[in-house]
Design goal:
Helices cover 40% and strands 9% of the residues. The chain contains 14 helices and nine strands. The strands form two sheets. The chain has a five-stranded antiparallel beta sheet with strand order 8-7-6-5-9, with no helix packed on it. Strands 1-4-2-3 form a four-stranded antiparallel beta sheet, with no helix packed on it. Strand 5 and strand 6 (354-359) form a beta hairpin.
């Protein structure tokens, strides 16, 4: 829970993790913040008497102090390791996470990016092959699937941000295939953040990459319809869930927990989802996680019937739907996983300059690394001018901070152009 202190004792630099009142009664978008301004101090003193701040001696908020993850495979349809394992992860999701991951510190992003690029290309080839096989009634290439997902898991363990960069590669004409890859990447990064073991990540990744395979049975004119679907058409679209489960159950050696990702990614925490109408933790850990990452990617993607919104806007929507559409603790952890300003966000600095978030500092959520894209006077900046906002002094940051997040593709800026290390 952290250390309880009176608001009069708050100081800049402290990381507030909980309040004595609901966060929704404050003006803060997300739960948890690192105090940086007098305005933030005044707001907390206005609405609270006591707050809880991160205390490194508090073992409840240090994931390294918890028991290590079971290395067993998938023992239950609900989650690898069974119901006890699911309960352990979901309970931990409601605790503010600090301290080292069981997977260790990430390697340098620049070292992992070339490897991640090759892995994403490999995954794309596999997904198109699997979709073609499913259309033709052929079995899923489980061996190829395990190989590709294993590579994705290894990359995410080394540095999750590298593959996350490739979730910004989008083409609405290839939505189903690229969406499947993006959902798998996001699910694996999320699972790493939750300290899932490598065997658990492999099962999760297999399920995430296959979660929409049932869409091969849905007519393209309905999937890509630019207008609102009729009730009849929506019922047809909902059929992709049981169709996908049928395809996966016919494959040999696919873990049951992986199939549950396809079965439950449209279930909702308070009910009202499909195809089983499950609610609460009956949905299962992987289903609850899949609902979040699937919806997040759908919100941030351009579709035939809507333009994608920025990652920052999407996370704000998820926070508003916590404990309603989505599991509250898992939403909080997903926001922490991606950062207050997710990679690829277009941001305006307090100088008026505009840039793209290229890396996040999970010790300083509000001070990511930014590649400048446009000066305050409107002049474009060639890729390569980098500001580390977590550096409090020196030439790198020069006191700069993020003023606001801009909409997706603001000023015609494509975040993909700012992937670090590309020619």
């Amino acid at each position: 829970m952290g250390k309880r202190i009176h608001v009069r004792d708050l100081k800049k630099g402290m990381h507030v993790i909980d309040l004595d009142c609901p966060w929704t009664e404050t003006s803060f978008v997300f739960q948890g913040l690192e105090l940086q301004t007098d305005a933030e101090l005044r707001e907390l003193r206005r609405v609270c008497e006591y707050v809880y701040v991160y205390d490194p001696t508090d073992t409840l908020s240090v994931p390294g102090a918890r028991s290590r993850v079971s290395q067993k495979g998938d023992a239950s349809p609900s989650a690898p390791g069974g119901e006890d394992r699911q309960a352990e992860v979901l309970a931990a999701s409601r605790v503010v996470r600090r301290g080292p991951s069981i997977h260790g510190e990430p390697i340098l992003l620049e070292r992992e990016l070339p490897v991640a690029r090759a892995i994403e290309t490999d995954a794309r080839t596999l997904v198109y092959t699997m979709l073609d096989d499913a259309r033709l009634g052929r079995n899923v290439d489980v061996a190829g699937l395990r190989r590709v997902v294993g590579g994705m898991v290894d990359s995410v363990v080394r540095n999750p941000d590298a593959l996350i960069w490739f979730t910004h590669l989008r083409n609405k004409d290839e939505y189903t295939a690229l969406h499947s890859i993006r959902v798998a990447i996001l699910a694996l990064a999320f699972g790493r953040h939750l300290d899932l073991s490598v065997p658990e990540l492999n099962v999760l990744g297999v399920g995430a990459l296959l979660h929409d395979i049932g869409k091969v049975k849905i007519p393209n004119d309905i999937l890509n319809k630019p207008e609102r679907l009729t009730n009849h058409e929506f019922e047809i679209v909902k059929g992709h869930v049981p169709e996908g489960v049928k395809i996966l159950e016919s494959a040999r050696d696919l873990p049951t927990a992986a199939i549950e990702v396809a079965a439950c990614h449209h279930e909702r925490y308070q009910g009202g989802g499909y195809a089983r109408g499950l609610s609460g933790e009956r949905i299962g850990l992987f289903g609850l996680m899949a609902a979040i990452v699937d919806s997040y990617d759908a919100l941030t993607s351009d579709r035939a019937y809507h333009a994608g919104i920025s990652p920052y806007e999407a996370l704000g929507k998820f926070y508003a739907m916590r404990n309603k559409e989505y599991h509250g603790g898992l939403v909080d952890q997903f926001i922490q996983c991606l950062g207050t300003y997710p990679i690829g966000s277009i941001v305006e600095l307090n100088t008026g300059d505009v840039g793209v978030v290229i890396a996040i500092d999970r010790k300083h959520f509000l001070r990511p690394t930014v590649a400048l894209a446009r000066r305050a006077d409107g002049m474009r900046v060639a890729p390569g001018t980098i500001l580390d906002l977590a550096v409090k002094s020196g030439r790198s940051a020069r006191g700069q901070a993020i003023r606001r997040v801009l909409p997706a593709m603001a000023h015609g800026i494509d975040p993909v152009q700012y992937i670090p290390g590309q020619p």
